[in-house]
Amino acid sequence: MSMYQRDFMEGTRGTQAVDWEERIDVKRMRRERKERALERLQETELGAMLLVSDPNIRYVTGLAMTGGSGADHYTVLTEEGDVIHWDTADHASNQRFNCPWLQDIRYACPGLGNVPRASGRDSARDFLKAKMADTVATALEEYGVDDEVLGIDVGNAGLVSAFEDRGIEVDTGTVPKVMEDARKVKTRDEIECLRQVAAICEAGFQRITETARPGASETDLWGAAAEELWKQGAFVGGGYVTSGPNTWPKHQANTTDRMIRPGDLVYADFYNIGYLGYRSCYYRTFSMGEPTQAQKDAYEIARDNLYDVLERIEPGATTDEICQGFPDMEGEHADFYDADEHWQMTTNHWGHGLGLQLYEVPLIWRGLSPEHPIEIEEGMTMAVETQEPAENQGVRVEEMVVVRENGVEILSQWPVEEITRIDY
């Protein structure tokens, strides 16, 4: 397998600001992301684009989008590179003080999402959409793009109608493609954010090895891991720990209060753990004591399937070719699920892009890729995951990678050759 050799300045170097070495350059990252989005906007017929999706807003503005009441924050990027951002009163006032790279921050009206849904009246919902459209229309006029087409990254019919009532022509198909194209290949600093979040996940895995013992619960392990992740500077937006029979098939409640017992397999899925917004997806399997031969055999199958796929990933390869490294229907244990087609096996074996969202371009999956292939590009980042049953339990394993000119660089570094054994 071709492996990328890191340059001297690449690699995890810490989360603090220092003046004595180069680390993640957040100013450069903000600038380069905005430039990418602007370049692709300028290739279209749009005069401006309205961003309502949190990851798109963060990509262009650098603001910490950690959720909210729906469309109580939104951003316009004009073809001249002007950025206008609307947010709640508390957030907007904070941003005016702390975000000097943004020159025009205004108060938002939540025309979509939880606020209109909770209002209980159609008249209230109409008012909120109209007022949201007014705030944007006013800015478009101020910046001289009100007579050009406005692209929007959501296709809400009511919002579109509100803009059209104000004489603004709206396009809902172009902006998602613009932002997908801008975001699918990562800058050097985005890659370093993903490398850093992988390192933080490894600190969480270590806490699991220190906490797991017979009598401890899954919630004990996940609580200890989550504490470590937060302490290391992560945003914990997801993740779980399961054990024993909850590892196959994956338990619907994810982490439960089940007690860990000798001979259990334990696996941790650290997904949606964020560092500067960049999200992890990183599985590892642990055994309480020496794993059985069946467990070792299952893990070897899952690991080999994973690395078969990784060996196929390189610039110019297409996802229909790569997905053949994943198991066929027999290898998917389709009979266990009473399944007939690969599309029914969502999440069991696939590779998915990572970035400011858990699922970005590309997706590598037997349920989709054979008929709908896309080409892999250098600089794409992704997580590739596999699983396998072991008697009445199961194993899972996953790597985070970045596509380089000669294959993949593996960003995740927790040992993968065999199940991590926990002695107690």
TrEMBL record:
CDD domains in the record: APP_MetAP
Domain (Creatinase N-terminal) ranges: 33-153
Domain Peptidase M24: 192-405
Pfam families named in the record: Creatinase_N, Peptidase_M24
Gene3D superfamilies in UniProt: Creatinase/methionine aminopeptidase superfamily (3.90.230.10), Creatinase/prolidase N-terminal domain (3.40.350.10)
Listed name of the protein: M24 family metallopeptidase
